[in-house]
Design goal:
two-stranded antiparallel ribbon; binds zinc ion; alpha+beta; 22% helix; 141 residues
């Protein structure tokens, strides 16, 4: 990108990549369901806050309990995250036997906590490290 920007200072680049797993690497604080357990757990890993909308308002949701909270050092489980979004039932299993390809991202599912949460807009829109790097410099990915 630096070479492109030097050669074409007035241009916006369109960067295209194949589907290599390296190109899909996520940032360490990524919002990804596979990092989460069903119940809250102690964790040194920090996950960035998510967001959700309820009654037309947008709420920011901490996934890792913030400093000063009684559960600081803990990470919310999927059950807590879904309850705060008013989406949960206590009987939802962590993960059902459906494969990711069987889940329609446009059709709400309630088969399990993992699939329900993975369809939420903040989890759906998690960008790869590469996409973040390209877009943060004003280019197209
Ligand atoms: Zn499921």
């Amino acid at each position: 990108m630096e070479i492109f920007e030097k050669l074409h200072p007035e241009c916006i680049g369109l960067f295209c990549f194949d589907q290599s797993s390296n190109h899909q690497a996520l940032p360490p604080d990524a919002l990804v369901v596979r990092k989460l357990t069903l119940k809250d757990k102690m964790s040194k890993e920090t996950i960035k806050p998510g967001y959700f909308e309820l009654d037309g308002r947008r709420f920011i949701q901490d996934i890792s309990y913030p400093e000063g909270h009684a559960k600081y050092g803990w990470q919310k489980g999927m059950r807590t995250i879904l309850q705060e979004r008013h989406l949960s039932r206590d009987d939802l299993p962590r993960l059902c036997k459906k494969k990711a390809a069987e889940i329609n991202p446009c059709e709400p599912t309630k088969c399990c906590a993992a699939h329900l949460l993975s369809q939420q807009p903040d989890f759906c829109s998690q960008q790869s490290r590469l996409e973040i790097a390209v877009r943060s410099r004003g280019h197209l990915f």
